[in-house]
UniProtKB/TrEMBL annotation:
The keyword Transmembrane is annotated on this UniProt entry: yes
Domain of life from the UniProt record: Bacteria
Organism (species): Blastomonas aquatica
Keyword field: Membrane, Transmembrane, Transmembrane helix
Taxonomic classification: Bacteria, Pseudomonadati, Pseudomonadota, Alphaproteobacteria, Sphingomonadales
Protein name: DUF4760 domain-containing protein
Spans traversing the lipid bilayer: 12-31, 37-58
Length: 185
């Protein structure tokens, strides 16, 4: 479309030449239009007005094409920014999961703030799947939330949390890879 805008730059000259040739042809082939100065003036102003209307129509079409280009560029930029934020959120969730796994490996209790952040970002990344009650995403988040609801001493003995966190981390990694491979370069 950008090439079409560049190609249309000389269209005004072409339309102007056509209007000039039309004016000369009218004056030559219709003698009544050139019988006195008033008739010649009226003919030339009519042709100039017609040229002005055509000029305006061409400019409106070019402006519409430029606006369409700008809208497409804005849509592309918005898409890239959204993808960038989604990648950042997914990376943050992975970092929280890895932190939680380290704490679990050391025999500690994962803080509720870390669990909350994992649940929030993970649910946001897979919002469509979270809405399905029987989905793996929903089950993982429910397990994280139930782990957080346990008393701290009971959390240290939980065995399912580690496998859930590892599954979530793998799921996020696959999700990030898919998003990066489908992103336009």
């Amino acid at each position: 479309m950008r090439q079409a805008l560049k190609a249309d730059r000389n269209i005004h000259v072409v339309v102007g030449l056509i209007a000039l040739i039309a004016a000369i042809a009218l004056l030559i082939f219709i003698p009544d239009l050139s019988k006195d100065y008033a008739a010649v003036f009226a003919t030339l102003t009519g042709v100039a007005t017609l040229y002005g209307v055509l000029f305006t129509i061409i400019e409106v079409l070019r402006t519409k094409a430029a606006a369409d280009l700008a809208a497409a560029a804005a849509k592309d930029a918005t898409s890239r920014v959204r993808a960038m934020y989604a990648s950042r959120d997914a990376a943050e969730c992975q970092a929280c999961i890895e932190s939680a796994l380290r704490i679990v490996d050391e025999g500690g209790v994962v803080p509720l703030s870390v669990l909350s952040r994992i649940s929030k970002i993970y649910a946001g990344e897979f919002a469509d799947q979270y809405e399905i009650h029987a989905s793996d995403v929903r089950q993982r988040i429910l397990l994280i939330e139930s782990y957080g609801a346990m008393p701290p001493k009971a959390r240290t003995n939980s065995t399912k949390i580690k496998t859930t966190l590892v599954a979530m981390n793998g799921h996020l990694a696959a999700h990030i890879s898919r998003n990066l491979s489908s992103e336009k370069v």
